[in-house]
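ping. complex inputs:
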Amino acid sequence: MSSTERLQRYLADERDGCGDEEVSQRLAELEEIDTAAGGPSLDADVGLLSALANETRYKIVRILHVAGEELCVCEFAPLLNVSDSAISHALSQLTDAGLVTRRKEGKWRKYRATARANAVLIALDGSREL
Amino acid sequence: MSSTERLQRYLADERDGCGDEEVSQRLAELEEIDTAAGGPSLDADVGLLSALANETRYKIVRILHVAGEELCVCEFAPLLNVSDSAISHALSQLTDAGLVTRRKEGKWRKYRATARANAVLIALDGSREL
DNA sequence: CATTCAGTTGAGCAATTATTCAATCATATT
DNA sequence: AATATGATTGAATAATTGCTCAACTGAATG
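pong. complex structure:
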């Protein structure tokens, strides 16, 4: 079945006309919507969301957001019951996604939430009881 | 190794005092941050983010956001190259996560983005070039 | 310069996820 | 009632993910 036959029946149902013309017009509208929806930032956005979609990583970002300052890796460890290695993997993925930044200070590494991370968390908080 | 020994060395490095007292005070601060970070909405938030962290589902929500109106399942199909079944699974997960709402109209089902979905997408857009 | 410590990296494995196929439900039509 | 259509559901499977362990890097310190 062509992908548009069902759409054709739908439009015939909803609207009065059922001509091919109206179908292809609606299809063009949908393509336009799709193009506007799927820009080049789609992959990066899904990457960012994937980075946040895990309890360990989400907690790290939340902790940094609440702390409002940079924290040392050694300060996360007591709060997350996973291995140091898991924490390091999590921090790398968050860094790649643009959610945290890293800074060296002697033998310690300090991480901070980015403006983007804060913006997303604030949106989540603000929309919770909409 | 106790989880706090490294923290103790860190604090001794950063600050002047290195007493047990200062360590346990910082630990208490961190626990407080952790509590503030990890409220009951943590699971729901991770669920919401997981629902968005997939190209098919993200595109559906984006399309609904851009469209600004409810769309029929049959209108997604031409834009997403996955099976109808996959689209239906995606829509169910998005509904469970509170990102879209469903409405029956005859034999057609129409979906709409929720206010929360729109808020998150707007935050992503607005924070892109921070 | 050998050792220690903080953190990272990669391999491996268990658990989860994304998709499809087939069957089913629900609504409309004949 | 029987059939057709839109959509959903569940099972099966391939792909991805999250974690740990062990080995490693880089920086400080004896």
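Residues 6, 9-10, 50, 54, 56, 82-83, 85-86, 89-90, 104, 106-108 of chain B lie near DNA strand C (CB under 10 Å from a C1').
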